Amino acid sequence: MKRFRFPLRPVAVLRAHQEIRARETFAAAVHAYVQSEEALATTRARVAHFEAALFAGRRTTFNPAEEAQQLAAYRRECAAEGEAERATFAARATMDRARVEYLDAHRKHEVVKRLEAKSRLAHHHAANREEQAEFDDFATRRALRRSPLFSP
User: Fold this and answer.
1) Domain boundaries, the chain
2) CA separation (Å) from 20 to 16, 63, 96, 115, 116?
3) DSSP-assigned letter for residue 149
4) Fold topology of 9-143
5) Number of C-alpha atoms within 13 angstroms, CB side, residue 78?
6) How many other C-beta atoms can be found within 10 angstroms of the C-beta atom of residue 22?
7) N or C, which terminus of the chain has less Cβ within 10 Å?
8) Arithmetic mean of pLDDT, 110-118
9) Please, what is the end-to-end C-alpha distance for the chain in angstroms?
10) Residue 54 CB burial class (10 angstroms; 0-12, 13-18, ≥19)
11) pTM score, whole prediction
C-alpha cells in the first residue's frame, strides 16, 4: 500500500499558523476590552461618589473655595469617564474586527482540514480496493491451481 501524501500540506500548515495568530490576536483584544470595561466601571463609580459628595455637601454650609475644588474634580472625573467610554468603544470595535478575522482564519483552516479528511478517505478506499483485488487474484490463482477448468 502506498503511503498517504496530502498535496496541500504546506497550505494546511500555513492556515494553521494563521489561525493560531488570529486566535492570539482575538484573545488579546478580548483582554483589552475587559480591561477597558473594568476601567470604565471604576471611573463611573468614582463619578457616582463625587456626585454623592457634591449633593451631600449642599446640605451643609456653603464654602465657595471647597465647592470650586470639588466641582473641578468632578469635571475631571466626568472627562475621564468620557475618555474611558471612548476607549471601551474602540476596544469593542477592535475586538469585533479580531473576532471576524479569527472566524475567517478558522473557516479557511477547516476547509483545508476537510479536504485532507476527504483525501485520506479516498486514499483509504483506493487502498482497500487494491487490497481486495489482490486477494481476489490470489484466490483465483489458488482455485485454478487445484482443479483444472476442463476435464480430459
Assistant:
1) 9-143
2) 6, 60, 17, 19, 19
3) S
4) Helix Hairpins (1.10.287)
5) 8
6) 21
7) C
8) 95
9) 41
10) middle
11) 0.73
